Structure to design on (277 residues):
């Protein structure tokens, strides 16, 4: 696997691949890689000639400084995992390589980015679109792979690609879970033993809503789901909402939809979702 640290070198590499008519599959990550990330790499390997992964903990998408400082970093392990998965190129830039100090980014996604994560993490999607736009411009992927784990992020990036007329084929990949249902996340390593057990509540609540979707009313489903979070002092529920698949507005009539949850488990903030019914 080639490891590339600069914009200049990745551009040169991409130009060469384009000249050779190779298709590029791209997986953007913030590192501390787990099987969820690796599943994206595997899908890219199957669908593109060359797979490029990036590891970059993007400061502009963190509204909470402490979260940024404490974001897990396991770069040597990550490199081994990517190599084992057959990733061809790792783009691993520094913050200075990606940002100038006087930089300005005023793209507004609109309503889609203001709800759910946008409400609890103001400015988050502004930072996400800023970095993904930069990475897409440099790596020029034919296909880019994103996890359903961050479903709203996927929709936001889809909207950005439409707004900027970016010619990237976006793919949404299934959520990879631990054996007890907890969605894999780089942040899971921050959970102590107790919190790790309690964290399965997110999955249990989503599962409850999915399994009872046809029998109960929307109100009963939401209340029933929320009840899971009232039983443990470690849990602080931020939102649990059953939303339209495209607009992420809360639905008032049953249809194909997505239930999304965000919750603090101790000091660690986790998110998860499930497609309904
Ligand atoms: P991150 O490193 O958290 O920014 O995630 C990088 C990419 O991996 C994003 O597209 C995520 O949605 C995806 N991802 C994270 N966790 C999972 C998971 N458990 N299953 C599938 N994809 C995931």
């Amino acid at each position: 696997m080639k490891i590339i640290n600069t914009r200049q070198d990745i551009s040169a590499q991409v130009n060469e691949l384009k000249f050779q008519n190779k298709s590029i599959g791209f997986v953007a990550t913030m590192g501390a890689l787990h099987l969820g990330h690796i599943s994206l790499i595997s899908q890219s390997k199957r669908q593109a000639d060359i797979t490029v992964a990036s590891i970059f903990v993007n400061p502009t998408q963190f509204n909470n400084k402490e979260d940024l400082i404490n974001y897990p970093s396991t770069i040597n392990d990550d490199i081994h995992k990517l190599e084992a998965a057959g990733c061809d190129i790792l783009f691993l830039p520094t913050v200075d390589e990606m940002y100038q100090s006087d930089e300005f980014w005023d793209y507004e996604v609109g309503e889609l980015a203001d709800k759910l994560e946008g409400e609890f993490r103001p400015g988050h999607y502004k930072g996400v679109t800023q970095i993904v736009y930069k990475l897409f411009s440099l790596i020029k992927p034919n296909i880019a792979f994103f996890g359903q784990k961050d479903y709203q992020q996927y929709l936001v990036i889809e909207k950005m690609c439409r707004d900027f007329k970016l010619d990237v084929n976006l793919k949404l990949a299934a959520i990879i879970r631990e054996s007890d249902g907890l969605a894999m996340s780089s942040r899971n390593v921050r959970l102590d033993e107790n919190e790790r057990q309690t964290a399965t509540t997110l999955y249990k609540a989503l599962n409850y809503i999915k399994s009872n979707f046809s029998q109960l009313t929307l109100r009963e489903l939401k209340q029933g789901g929320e009840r899971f979070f009232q039983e443990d002092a470690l849990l602080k529920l931020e939102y649990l909402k059953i939303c339209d698949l495209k607009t992420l507005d809360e639905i008032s009539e049953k249809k194909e939809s997505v239930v999304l949850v965000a919750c603090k488990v101790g000091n660690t903030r986790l998110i998860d979702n499930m497609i309904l019914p």
In short: The radius of gyration is 19 Å. Residues 7 and 97 are 7 Å apart (CA to CA). The chain has a mean pLDDT of 97. The pocket of adenosine monophosphate is lined by residues 29-30, 36-37, 39-40, 146-147, 149-150, 173, 175-176, 183-186 (CB under 6 Å).
